[in-house]
Predict the 3D structure of the following.
Amino acid sequence: MTKATTITRTLAGSALVATLLTSAALAQERTLQLGHLANEDNSWHLAAVKFGEELSALTDGRIAVEVFPNESLGKEIDLINGMQLGTVDMTITGESLQNWAPMAALLAVPYGYRSIEHMDEVASGEIGDRIEAQIVERAQIRPIAYFARGARELTANRAITSPDDLDGLKMRVPNVPLFIDVWSALGANPGPMAFSEVFTSLQNGTIEAQENPLALIRSASFNEVQSHVNLTDHVRSWIYLTIAESTWQQLSAEDQEAVMEAAARAQEYERGLFEDSLAADRAYLEENGMTFVEVDNAAFAAKAKDAVLANVSDEIKPIVEQLFAE
């Protein structure tokens, strides 16, 4: 082999390596960081991973998504602040955005949504568009999909079918003035308490009841200290998959379209997981001794209405009144 041939092959080899390196660089132009508070088994996390897979496929690998569960990238408010500063790309968040955009409070209005279908109509309709537009404008965060949250239900050691059955029931609620006022108006005796204290307090009789979605009732083993799940459905809500507006504006129109398509696929995927988990959680709780009780939801909603309206801002009060009238 001549010296000239060796040099030619060396140059060709170098060119090939350079081409491969360039191709690799082009293959992944950007990695989006998506942090959230749920664990790896939660449907939100699984949907976030699905979003990343779909976005990578739609962009031929140019955009990757790195998902950080369990607050490993930061707590919810810290992530929101990071998105506004341009240091975080994405998160899953909901009514916490009302700190910037008051209309985000509509994501979790007690008795605002009579069914998950009604909630879907609102979230994907004109009111939902207004909520999202305000979040973009005032929080600089763009909702791109939404996930349903399990309705909150009342557990106790007896059946409760109407507000009259509450009769001063001592119950734990989160430290949210709206929740406290609504349950007081319904006739219960609510009080805030750290979630970590609820099981023991139910066990020793300090409180008689609590309210949470089925998934949390199951994971907290409340079936060991409560006998009935009263299907009050008092809060139906949703939560957004979001992207920082600064990140969104850096994307081409083609990539923005890919992001929205991947988000739509993730939303559909999460809904399937959500529905499966509802059925599984109910089956588990029934198998482990809990009785499910249908309640007079219309009576609960009617009695809660004034307390709800008294606790919402003037900006969203007309919309809440409209929701109650539907």
About this structure: Residues 2-26 have pLDDT under 50 and may be disordered. The longest helix spans residues 253-287.
